[in-house]
């Protein structure tokens, strides 16, 4: 928001959240229900508050909804509460009065809280149009065949080319909208402000709407909230020393070899790298943070439990593993004969399909510690999908 809030040149935004949401089937007013991690009303409040073209924000709530509103908007910077009325139209009326009493405004954007996903683009477009027009609103084409009906039978099939679906915010010259509301007959209920504005003789300029601005009305709207998926990647790397007299565990499989890997747990270098990759994808530190080598309870522990723990952390964040890819770096033993078994085991531990798991191996051409068979290194990468809220 900008800070020229009290001037009559200012652009005010109004979020209408005074309804009861009776068609939603929810136990509390729908505007306070959480979708994508925030109360519905909070989404458009945040959109307006973060837009520099909006000077002052009014949030309209129902009488008795103060506590719900304070909770939903806690931590929000400057906004002004208004108590709405019995109808949407009355709620707007109360707000126009409050704005007029506080010194008026140049322009006003009136928005349904029930349309939470308000983009910067829509606000930008409306503000741009208001520079030359007195009224503007977003609309979308009618895609289905449209009919009229008495509720039971087909009336007329309408020409959908001439029809549009109307959204909010609707943007107006403030004084003209106030005057239009003044002359609108109180006994006729208007479901939006554009019809009131037009009845007073003004044009409304149409801008392209946004499917994401869809209104939450019925229970099914709450079930099919679109999720945004975020792809995450994590990498892991580990080395353990090869010594005589130890068992060799790679990818959760015991492998016959003259030497084994030494370490605090079963020293499964491949699963350790994999665990770090999984933890890395959700920014959850590394294996040592969760299973400190200083803790005696991990002595000789099967490393599969580290992997399972990391997958549970991912699942707890609503994430799913897309794929993992690993490389073992060693001279001996030869990995190829064990590769498919290791792959299948890791797919089972992660509970994903075999083609989501890749295990590869390479030597270092006899160079370095791996080349001298003093140790085995492993690297891993994991890709996961997180539902972004
Ligand atoms: N609204 C309002 N004051 C009212 C009625 C509605 O501020 N007296 C607001 C709603 O909170 C909503 C927007 O107007 O953000 C659009 O109304 P609608 O989708 O019909 O919401 P509700 O009236 O709450 O729902 P319902 O009609 O199902 O009861
Ligand atoms: Mg309603």
TrEMBL record:
Transmembrane segments: none annotated. The record marks 160, 215 as: Positions MEP for the nucleophilic attack. It catalyses: 2-C-methyl-D-erythritol 4-phosphate + CTP + H(+) = 4-CDP-2-C-methyl-D-erythritol + diphosphate; 4-CDP-2-C-methyl-D-erythritol 2-phosphate = 2-C-methyl-D-erythritol 2,4-cyclic diphosphate + CMP. 4-CDP-2-C-methyl-D-erythritol 2-phosphate binds at residues 238-240, 264-265, 286-288, 362-365, 369, 372. Residues 232-389 are annotated as: 2-C-methyl-D-erythritol 2,4-cyclodiphosphate synthase. One of its GO terms (molecular function) is 2-C-methyl-D-erythritol 2,4-cyclodiphosphate synthase activity. Belongs to the IspF family. In the C-terminal section; belongs to the IspF family. PROSITE patterns: ISPD, ISPF. Its cofactor is a divalent metal cation. Pathway: Isoprenoid biosynthesis; isopentenyl diphosphate biosynthesis via DXP pathway; isopentenyl diphosphate from 1-deoxy-D-xylulose 5-phosphate: step 4/6; Isoprenoid biosynthesis; isopentenyl diphosphate biosynthesis via DXP pathway; isopentenyl diphosphate from 1-deoxy-D-xylulose 5-phosphate: step 2/6. Keywords: Isoprene biosynthesis, Lyase, Metal-binding, Multifunctional enzyme, Nucleotidyltransferase, Transferase. Coiled coil: none annotated. Residues 1-231 are annotated as: 2-C-methyl-D-erythritol 4-phosphate cytidylyltransferase. GO terms for biological process: isopentenyl diphosphate biosynthetic process, methylerythritol 4-phosphate pathway; terpenoid biosynthetic process. Bifunctional enzyme that catalyzes the formation of 4-diphosphocytidyl-2-C-methyl-D-erythritol from CTP and 2-C-methyl-D-erythritol 4-phosphate (MEP) (IspD), and catalyzes the conversion of 4-diphosphocytidyl-2-C-methyl-D-erythritol 2-phosphate (CDP-ME2P) to 2-C-methyl-D-erythritol 2,4-cyclodiphosphate (ME-CPP) with a corresponding release of cytidine 5-monophosphate (CMP) (IspF). The record marks 23, 30, 264, 363 as: Transition state stabilizer. Pfam families: IspD, YgbB. This is Bifunctional enzyme IspD/IspF. A divalent metal cation binds at residues 238, 240, 272. HAMAP family: IspDF, IspF. It comes from Parasphingorhabdus halotolerans. SUPFAM superfamilies: IpsF-like (SSF69765), Nucleotide-diphospho-sugar transferases (SSF53448). Residues 231-384 form the 2-C-methyl-D-erythritol 2,4-cyclodiphosphate synthase domain. Its EC number is 2.7.7.60, 4.6.1.12. InterPro entries: IspD, IspD/F, IspD/TarI, ISPD_synthase_CS, MECDP_synthase, MECDP_synthase_CS, MECDP_synthase_sf, Nucleotide-diphossugar_trans.
């Amino acid at each position: 928001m900008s800070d020229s809030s009290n001037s009559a040149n200012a652009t005010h935004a109004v979020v209408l959240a005074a309804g009861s949401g009776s068609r939603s089937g929810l136990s509390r007013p729908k505007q306070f229900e959480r979708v994508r991690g925030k109360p519905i009303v909070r989404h458009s409040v945040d959109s307006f508050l973060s837009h520099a073209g909006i000077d002052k924000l009014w949030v309209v709530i129902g009488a008795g909804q103060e506590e719900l509103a304070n909770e939903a908007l806690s931590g929000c910077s400057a906004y002004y509460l208004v108590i709405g009325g019995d109808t949407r139209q009355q709620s707007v009326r109360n707000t126009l009065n409050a704005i007029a009493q506080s010194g008026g405004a140049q322009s006003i954007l009136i928005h349904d809280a029930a349309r939470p996903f308000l983009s910067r683009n829509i606000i930008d477009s409306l503000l741009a149009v208001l520079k030359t027009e007195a009224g503007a609103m977003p609309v979308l084409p009618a895609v289905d065949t449209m009919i009229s009906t008495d509720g039971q039978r087909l009336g007329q099939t309408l020409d959908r080319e001439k029809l549009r679906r109307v959204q909010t915010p609707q943007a107006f010259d403030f004084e003209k909208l106030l005057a239009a509301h003044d002359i609108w007959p109180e006994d006729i209920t208007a479901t939006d402000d554009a019809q009131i504005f037009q009845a007073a003789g003004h044009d409304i300029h149409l801008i392209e709407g946004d499917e994401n601005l869809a209104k939450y009305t019925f229970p099914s709207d709450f079930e099919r909230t679109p999720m945004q998926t975020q792809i995450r990647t994590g990498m892991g790397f580990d080395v353990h020393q090869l010594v005589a007299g130890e068992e060799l565990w790679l990818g959760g499989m015991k492998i016959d070899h003259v030497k084994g890997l030494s370490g605090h747990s079963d020293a499964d270098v491949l699963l350790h790298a994999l665990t770090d990759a999984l933890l890395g994808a959700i920014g959850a530190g590394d294996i040592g943070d969760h299973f400190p080598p200083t803790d005696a309870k991990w002595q000789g522990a099967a490393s599969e439990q580290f992997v399972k723990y990391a997958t549970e952390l991912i699942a707890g964040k609503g994430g799913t593993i897309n794929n993992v890819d690993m490389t073992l770096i060693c001279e001996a033993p030869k990995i190829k004969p064990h590769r498919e078994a290791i792959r299948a085991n890791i797919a089972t531990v992660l509970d994903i399909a075999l083609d989501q798991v890749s295990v590869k191996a390479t030597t270092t051409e006899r160079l370095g510690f791996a080349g001298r068979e003093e140790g085995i290194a492993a690297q891993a990468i994991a890709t996961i999908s997180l539902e972004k809220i």
